[in-house]
Amino acid sequence: MNEQRNDGQNGSGIETGLRDPLREELESEIRHAIEAELREELSQDVRERIVARLQAELAEEIQARIARVKAELEVEILARATPTPAAAPRMFLRFRWNFRAQHWILLTSCLILIITGLPMKFHETRLSQLFFDLVGGVQVSTLIHRVGAVGLIFVGAYHLIYLVTFREGRKNFLALLPCPQDVLDFFHMLRYFLGRSEERPRFGRFSYVEKFDYWAVYWGMVVMIGSGLMLWFLETSLQYLPKFAADIAREAHSDEGLLATLAIIFWHFYNVHLNPEHFPMNRAFLTGMISEEEMRHHHPLEYEALMAARPAVKEVIVLSPKDSGPDCQR
Questions:
Q1: Per-residue pLDDT tens over the stretch 186-233
Q2: Which residues does residue 93 pair with via DSSP β-bridges, in sequence order?
Q3: Which residues contact 121 (CB under 8 A, 6 or more apart)?
Q4: In this structure, are residues 253 and 227 in contact, taking their beta carbons and an 8 Å threshold?
Q5: How many CA atoms lie within 13 A of 201 on its CB side?
Q6: Strand, helix or coil at 289?
Q7: How many CA atoms lie within 13 A of 6 on its CB side?
Q8: Each residue's pLDDT tens digit, 241-256
Q9: Does pTM top 0.70 for this prediction?
């Protein structure tokens, strides 16, 4: 009996000894499996949270970039829709008020003389008869014509005083004197018009065209004023001159008036106003100013001399005749 009891106790102890390691091994495996499963679930959750966070940050950055690009485009579109005004070009004072006032008197007088003189020259035409009826007769037209003549005489006499007493007048007169360079410039311009030269001639304060304009006007004034005074005071003139002198004065006054009209309308008006470079108007006779671009294109020698004498940049440069000598000194 005792042996059987001992054998039972020993078997129970062995069974217990075997059961404990097995339990521990099973518990260990179960623990590892649970931990692995928990780690997998945890890592999946963390990955999802990280991805969600990155997506949110990326969406915010994309929205910020879209807003920034939109703002830049709006600014650019507004800038193109309302362009900023360009900076005003530098201007050069070419003619002072004294010279411009003389030009206005000359312009007004010539217009009066042309409007009233042509109907008297072509008095047999229907248009001339309509004009005389409009102004009140030939006598009224003659009176208006003489008013224009007084203006022409005044500006001619004053211009002589201007040339002698004003330094500006003396300098302009010297610059307007013809010289051999004008002949060279004329043929150079012909070669340019014919395509034989790639560059235009370079002019100073006055080109040969402007010089021709000036001297043609003054010669015309001498002829028109002289012959006009003879016809105006015909009885007094015949006391000292023969009859054929009055006839010559009448023809000279009539033909020179027509020539002056054609020269003013077709030559002067085209070169100054109707030329594509100036159309529809050259405003220098109003303001006395021309732009820097016009100076460089039409009077490059004067522009270079002025820039050498006045290197400082200014919006408006007062150009007096003392800044440029005679054009023939090249």
A1: 999 999 999 999 899 999 999 999 999 999 998 999 999 999 999 999
A2: 289, 318
A3: 254, 257, 258
A4: yes
A5: 20
A6: strand
A7: 3
A8: 999 999 999 999 999 9
A9: no
